[in-house]
């Protein structure tokens, strides 16, 4: 980091570059864990109320939920990570003007991607949910919920893009506050629209979707108003509304590769949902309800991952590569410990979680088997996922993508072979558990082996080669 750059750095950027690693990571992760758990709680609140409508409604939501999570993970984790990484690297390198311009690039990407999700799911939803095992009443419920949710896909994308912009500056508190307030408002809003009260008609499962969209609409407005205020480090104005291809590339070269990893994660769960569908709607509801705990781990780990993106990205932009790696392994140790503890608790006591959403005997049996088999391996899922976020900050996503593709292959092919060879539902779950183990081990081994850097910790790539030749 040059002296001139160091003199011009914002205090928050300087903190990411110089403050003690673990205290800084925990301080930034605290509000961010709250925001992510609250965001996951929004979906759980909705699921709890929809469960009161019966098993078919719960199964219908289970069919749509992996696709909703796919959208949220791509917008918030993959493309959102690309946005936060690009802004962090720009600020770390002293490129304040580029960081300002990246805000508008993030908004444009969010608008286009949100419209694409709406079109694809409106046109192809019936075919997709049928392939996942939906039939009869469960398929009808899935289509109703899906059409409502994806009508507002742009709101989800804008919310996550604006939150990523703010987190890229190292500010985790504002997105946390907005999300927590929105979740508190969702608690009465969701049952009001699902069951009705007074002049408000009962909308059923569609009411849950509408409540979720109102949550994202309010959050998007709040984040935009913050960015337009003097308190924001980056402010989108007419003067900064200039679109440049290199800045789109800076976001998308990380975000699109990350999207491949996200698609692989959700596809493995969607395939397992389809395999579970061969055992009936009770099995779909049980697997879908149990696997929601895995989805709850995603925002928990993202609570650590978002500050990792900012800290690692800022350090990489400033050339502090050893510090970037120390930050990464500190985050990995914390994530593994948290997710493994949750997984073991779920394996030992599965029914308290499942009974939050229903009492159907088949649902409880299938969900219990899943948590007993896969829960003890959740630590490896947390390990792989947090290293994926750190790799986003570093702009090095090859091995996280390969690790996720390996997970998809083990989960999908293993589950299919298990049924083809006469196995039961529990054998599909064994394939899911093994896939998580492969996922975590592949990514951590690659980074430990120097996937980010060449010998002696030096950065790889043509720019690094030119720099070393010049130094020689």
Automatic annotation (TrEMBL):
InterPro entries associated with the record: MATE_fam, MdtK-like, Membrane_Transporter-Flippase
Keyword tags: Cell membrane, Membrane, Transmembrane, Transmembrane helix, Transport
Pfam families per record: MatE (PF01554)
Compartment(s) where it occurs, according to its Swiss-Prot or TrEMBL record: Cell inner membrane
Membrane topology qualifier: Multi-pass membrane protein
Stretches that traverse the bilayer: 21-45, 57-90, 102-125, 145-166, 178-197, 203-227, 247-276, 296-320, 327-349, 369-390, 397-417, 429-453
Keyword Transmembrane assigned: yes
Entry protein name: MATE family efflux transporter
Main location: membrane
């Amino acid at each position: 980091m040059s002296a001139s750059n160091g003199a011009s750095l914002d205090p928050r950027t300087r903190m990411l570059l110089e403050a003690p690693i673990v205290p800084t990571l925990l301080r930034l992760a605290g509000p961010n864990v709250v925001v992510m758990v609250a965001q996951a709680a929004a979906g759980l609140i909705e699921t709890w109320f929809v469960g009161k409508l019966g098993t078919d409604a719960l199964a219908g939501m289970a069919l749509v939920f992996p696709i909703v999570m796919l959208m949220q993970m791509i917008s918030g984790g993959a493309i959102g990570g690309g946005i936060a990484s690009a802004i962090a690297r720009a600020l770390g390198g002293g490129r304040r003007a580029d960081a300002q311009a990246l805000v508008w690039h993030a908004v444009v990407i969010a608008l286009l991607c949100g419209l694409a999700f709406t079109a694809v799911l409106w046109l192809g939803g019936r075919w997709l949910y049928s392939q996942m095992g939906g039939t009869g009443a469960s398929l009808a419920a899935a289509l109703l919920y899906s059409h409502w949710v994806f009508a507002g896909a742009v709101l989800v994308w804008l919310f996550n893009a604006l939150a990523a912009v703010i987190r890229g500056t190292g500010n985790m508190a504002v997105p946390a506050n907005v999300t927590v307030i929105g979740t508190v408002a969702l608690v009465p809003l969701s049952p009001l629209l699902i069951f009705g009260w007074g002049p408000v008609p009962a909308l059923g499962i569609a009411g849950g979707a509408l409540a979720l969209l109102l949550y994202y609409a309010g959050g998007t407005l709040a984040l935009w108003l913050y960015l337009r205020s003097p308190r924001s480090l980056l402010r989108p104005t007419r003067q900064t509304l200039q679109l440049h291809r290199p800045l789109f590339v800076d976001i998308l070269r990380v975000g699109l590769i990350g999207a491949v990893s996200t698609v692989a994660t959700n596809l493995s769960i969607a395939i397992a949902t389809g395999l579970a569908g061969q055992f009936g709607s009770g099995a779909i509801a049980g697997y879908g309800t149990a696997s929601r705990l895995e989805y709850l781990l995603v925002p928990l780990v993202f609570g650590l991952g978002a500050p990792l993106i900012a800290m690692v990205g800022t350090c990489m932009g400033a050339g502090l590569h050893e510090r970037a790696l120390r930050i990464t392994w500190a985050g990995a140790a914390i994530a593994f410990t948290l997710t493994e503890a949750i997984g073991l608790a779920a394996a030992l006591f599965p029914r308290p979680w499942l009974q939050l959403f229903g009492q159907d005997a088949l649902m409880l049996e299938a969900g219990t088997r899943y948590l007993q088999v896969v829960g003890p391996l959740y630590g490896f899922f947390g390990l792989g996922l947090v290293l994926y976020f750190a790799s986003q900050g570093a702009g090095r996503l090859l091995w996280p993508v390969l690790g996720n593709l390996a997970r998809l292959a083990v989960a999908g092919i293993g589950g299919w072979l298990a049924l083809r060879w006469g196995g039961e539902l529990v054998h599909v779950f064994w394939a899911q558990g093994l896939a998580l183990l492969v996922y975590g081990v592949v990514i951590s081994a690659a980074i430990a082996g120097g996937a980010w850097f060449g010998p002696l910790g030096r950065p790889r790539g043509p720019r690094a080669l030119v720099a070393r030749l010049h130094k020689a």
